[in-house]
Amino acid sequence: MLQGVSVLVAGAGLAGLTAARDLLALGATVTVVDARDRVGGRVHTVRNGFAAGQHAEAGGDMIDATHAELLALVDELGLKLAPILRAGWAYARPDEHGVVRVVPRDAAHGWERLALGLGELTRQYRLAERRWDTPITQAIAQKTVLQWLDDSHADPELRATAEGLRGFFLADPDELSLIALVDQFAAEGSPAGDRTYRILGGNDQLATALATPLGERLKLATELAAISLRGQRVRASLKHKRQTQQLTCDYLVCTLPASVLRRIPITPALPAQQHDAIAALRYGRATKTLLQFSSRFWRVPGKPAAFGTPMPFGAVWDGNEEQRGKPAILTLLAGGSASDATSELLGRDGAAGLGRQLEWLGAQRAQLLTSHHVTWEDDPLARGGYAFFDPGFTPDLRRWLAQPCGRLFFAGEHTSLRWQGYMNGAVETGRRAAAEVAAVHGMTGVVRRRPRNAL
Ligand SMILES: Cc1cc2nc3c(=O)[nH]c(=O)nc-3n(C[C@H](O)[C@H](O)[C@H](O)COP(=O)(O)OP(=O)(O)OC[C@H]3O[C@@H](n4cnc5c(N)ncnc54)[C@H](O)[C@@H]3O)c2cc1C
Question: Which mutation among 261, 386, 418, 420 tests ligand 1's pocket best, with the greatest number of atoms within 8 A of CB?
């Protein structure tokens, strides 16, 4: 169907690699570039430095039973899933004396209270069929979560629950638009799904399995520096080891995060709304810390091994329960201002300081063996963990994030309506973009010619 048609895919995260897989299957001549020296992007399994050959996820970790496209892909590629965190989530917070207690009811309780408080707005949003081009959505989106908490005279417990969500949305209540919360309730309710998995052997196995068939078609350490749309062709400037080369192709699928894409010159300019959408989208701060201890001191059979907290280190969970060996890894995810606090704490006291914050879990009973942390807002190729919507983002513009522009197609987590912020969103949108190329090509019928590949 796409024989003789050349497609450049920018980005070798899950969106780019999935798009490339489908395009190859359609017969296209595919080139994939990524500025990193590895594939996977924000799926980043850390393998170096941990004892007993263990590993843990510094980026995308949990896969829910509802992540259909991702699960199907995992299955097609012959990868295996490990069920994790089967006892669900609990909530830990300091009491009035500053002693951290695990609250003896599950995290869903606070979530149910939020759902109740937002019931009427959620109903209205559902009446608008969850569209982002209606005054209903616009009115909700103008408020921050904090403004809503103030307006509804929320008690401290409800405020603590909303603040705890910074580990999920990667934004604080004073940054996050209320529409993010309402959209979540309108979709499915609690973000803590029933069944959770990670890929056996590491989530990077998925990226590797997708990349392997690409062979020489995958160019790592190669940065997309500029795009120019010229008549029936797309010209891309690619930088590799300080050298810039031009690649001309029929179509370009761009999967770079909007935070990076907005720095890349595109000529002629994108439509004003599309430019504005890409420029305005915010990305959340997120620091993931992986702490390997000499024992799995937190394990109590039948009890949760995952905790939401209002504390500076954010949420904490068992990062490798599916792996063998005496040592064990705890994963800490600090979103929004907790990311700033964690970075500060790490800078001041090192990983041992973070370990001391976990004494309520029993950390003093084990030895901290090694640690690794990634602050995603400091990564120049991500500039944040994943996208979030603040009140400054005009909801009408959201659809422009995914809108093809001539021969230029967009995919990636941030372009997904249903699965924004998830690996499943990356996979779905990669597949969608590949299908869009095929659809546009089928309708317009490009003259077949050999791709001019300067690489
Ligand atoms: C801390 C953290 C925790 C997360 N937890 C979960 C989770 O538990 N479950 C879940 O489902 N999801 C989770 N996610 C989200 C998930 O990881 C992402 O949604 C998904 O991996 C995004 O894939 P992508 O292909 O859209 O983008 P990316 O993976 O970012 O891919 C884009 C690629 O473009 C490359 N690039 C950037 N600029 C250029 C350029 N100029 N030229 C060439 N290449 C360039 C980048 O190097 C990158 O490889 C988490 C993310 C983070 C950061």
Answer: 386
Residues 210 and 312 grouped into a single domain: no
364 Cα to the center of ligand 1, angstroms: 34
Q: Which domain holds residue 155?
A: 108-191
The closest residue, in CA terms, to atom 21 on ligand 1 is 42
259 touches ligand 1 (CB under 6 Å)? no
Are residues 277 and 346 part of one domain? no
- How confident is the model over 288-315, as a mean pLDDT? 93
DSSP characters over 55-75 = -EESS---EETT-HHHHHHHH
Tokens of 179: 């529409």
Q: From the CB of 13, is ligand 1 less than 6 Å away?
A: yes
Phi-psi region of 41 (alpha: psi -120 to 50; beta: other; left: phi over 0): left
- Is residue 319 in contact with ligand 1, taking CB distance under 6 Å? no
- Ligand 1 mean position, distance from CA 118 (Å): 30
CATH code, domain carrying 263: 3.50.50.60
326 half-sphere exposure, CB direction, 13 A CA radius:
6
Do the domain assignments include residue 74? no
Token pair belonging to 255:
């999967």
Express each pLDDT in 241-259 by its tens digit.
999 999 999 999 999 999 9
Query: For the chain, how many structural domains are there in total?
Result: 3
Cα–Cα distance list, 19 to 8, 14, 198 (Å): 10, 8, 22
State the distance from the centre of ligand 1 to the C-alpha of 312, rounded, in angstroms: 24
**pLDDT at residue 50, rounded to an integer:** 97
Q: Which two tokens stand for residue 450?
A: 């050999």
Ligand 1 neighbour 255 (Cβ under 6 A):
yes
The 10 Å Cβ neighbour count of residue 85 is: 19
pTM of the model: 0.96
